[in-house]
TrEMBL record:
Its EC number is 3.1.-.-. CDD domains: YqgF (cd16964). It comes from the Bacteria. It is found in: Cytoplasm. Keywords: Cytoplasm, Hydrolase, Nuclease, Ribosome biogenesis. SMART domains: YqgFc (SM00732). This is Putative pre-16S rRNA nuclease. It comes from Halalkalibacter suaedae.
Amino acid sequence: MRALGLDLGTKTIGIALSDELGWTAQGLETLRRDEEAPEQDIEKITTLVKEYQVDTIVIGLPKNMNGSIGPSGERSQEFAEGLSKVVTCTIKLWDERLTTVAAEKMLISADVSRKKRKKVIDKMAAVMILQGYLDHNGK
């Protein structure tokens, strides 16, 4: 079982990949989004699904602190719906509240410079989303 984790932002998508046994998540890349060609995001994810033989995609679902879904969450749901039309693997939406904050704190505690943090924060958040999903499912 291989899973792909996605942290969807407006400008980038952080991408993480599990090992083949589905135990650990590692950062894969940060995809820069093109607002004028959103279909390219789906194409890139589809390519990664095929390349790594992914059977589950875990997409971060940003919820408000009260559990409700706001505009960002709705965008995640729409992305998942669009992706489900072109891939055959399972797509899960995973509560990602505070993952970016936690990733930022982790990078600060590791003394990563602000400039470098900006480059890896989305990928790190994707790792945390995917690892949370894997841990929850007993992997």
